[in-house]
Amino acid sequence: MPRSESIPRMHKVFLFGLFNKLVFLATAMSLAAFLSFGALSQADPVGHERQSSYALMSPDTKAMQDDPLLNPATFAVLDGQVLWQEVAGKKNQSCASCHGDATVSMKGVAASFPKVNAAGQLLSLTGQINQCRTERQGTTPFAFESKPLLALSAFVANQSKGMPITVERTPANEAALVSGQRLFNQRMGQLNLSCAQCHAERSGQKLAGNPIPQAHPTAYPIYRLEWQAVGSLERRLRNCLVGVRAEPYAFGSAELLELELFLAWRARAMPLESPGVRP
Question: Catalytic: 240?
Fold first, then answer.
């Protein structure tokens, strides 16, 4: 073959190999970016596409949530109002001793949790309440999912009703937020399902005849008709883990806190509805 004809063919082989290398490099870089914290932006639902599970409820259940006289969680809010003024512990302090009028001091507070405190500890609202009990009142913390802890949580959360969730990415919560996203996307249990497969990929569809919500924690603590009681987001997350036949994380565990943080971040700027009512 004449030398003049072999040169173009060599160029083609070289360019084809170079192209393949560039494609491989670009794919690897994209994958690395996805696995980094930048993936959070891809997991973030677009504002107008987000929807509270309130929108999926029946008219009767919506009416129950909207009217304090019909909402069973109103009793928890009223109990929390009493506990707010109750002096407790060795220091003879009440919540009001430090924070005064909750209708003023607690506005927007619940909408900012979970958050990292000055000591670098990630706390939910219930965790903050119990920390105040031990450090400010000098008494024992409430048990997880106990009536007084849920009541105080509902009372405090109710002061932020209608206000936007304000959880944002910060240097302090970045590691926990990334871990929460990983858990949200991690397949678990004997059914080998992740939170994302139901609540991100198939939200709006039906499972066992019930609509699948987007899992925005806008109404906690909630009164669930299934429970016939008020319950926390941690209780709901544990229910989901049992549903996929996975060992549920313990109340107060780092995993549940990180999941709660990620869910609150996904729901940022959405209005708080607490106390909500759900089927």
Answer: yes
